[in-house]
Amino acid sequence: MDKWVGKVAVVTGASSGIGAATCRRLVDSGMIVVGFARRENRLEELRETLTGKPGEFHYYKVDLCSEQNIREAFAWVKNKLKSVDVLVNNAGVWKNCDVLGNTQDWKLMFDTNVLGPSICSKEAVKIMKEFEINGHIININSDSGHYPPTLMANMSVYSATKFSSVSITESLRELLALQMLPIRVTSISPGLVDTEMVDDMTTAINTSPMLKPSNIADAIVYSLSAPQYVNISEILIRPTSETMLPFIKDAFQELNISL
């Protein structure tokens, strides 16, 4: 990670979970990190814990459902820090609804999980191109964006957002390669991670193995640490012994079907 010392990283969803763990790892590695999130009090608490570390931590209050807010945030980073070398699109949201469910929940998930990160990538690439940066964009996706949760109706729309993000991530990598830009793109797709997002998902969570946010931060550091000519484009990371059986049982119980 020596090549990233003093470089600027933007991390979305920085107020908790994977985002906060990533901020800690990157600041510990000597990077200048800007955390984007809505909960300013949590960002301030994180800043206090990172004071005195090898790197620096700054933050900007951002609602990823607002394109204007995103643009303002990147303009602030550009003006204050003169660079964006790394972007970690981590922020995400899950709502308990299916494909016949609440349309406002659909919109929130697509805005936060698909459109918001895509706008962040667009703004980051503009800065990387302007300053001729050897950059890196990392999208935190999900294993549910690779395999449809057929028997888990309440995951169907969330899964669709992650399918979209996985596809967009690869399209971005291909586009930047065609333009001969030195910007790497990585998709990291975790299984269950012990974060706030999973707290209300299902009772099956209580018996399922889960990853720690620090495990995903490790994968981010691994991707960043590769030589510039190496683009680790896809990582699928799951807890050992992860299985969907507990969730399938829950789904069948909700439908009063014996398994």
Low-confidence stretches: none
Overall spatial form: globular
SS strand fraction:
5-15%
CATH topology: Rossmann fold
Total DSSP E strands: 7
| Average residue pLDDT | 91
Largest sheet: 7 strands, parallel
Q: Helix tally?
A: 7
The helix content is: 40-55%
CATH class: Alpha Beta
Number of domains: 1
Mind telling me the CATH superfamily name? NAD(P)-binding Rossmann-like Domain
Kindly report the spatial arrangement of strands forming the biggest sheet: 3-2-1-4-5-6-7
Second CATH tier, the architecture: 3-Layer(aba) Sandwich
Distance between the termini: 49 Å
User: How are helices and strands ordered from N to C?
Assistant: EHEHEHEHEHEHEH
Structural class: alpha/beta
Radius of gyration: 18 Å
Keywords: Oxidoreductase
Family: Belongs to the short-chain dehydrogenases/reductases (SDR) family.
Organism: Aphis glycines
Protein name: Dehydrogenase/reductase SDR family member 11
Features:
single chain; 259 residues; alpha/beta; Rossmann fold; seven-stranded parallel sheet; 7 helices; 43% helix; Dehydrogenase/reductase SDR family member 11; SDR_fam; oxidoreductase activity, acting on the CH-OH group of donors, NAD or NADP as acceptor; oxidoreductase
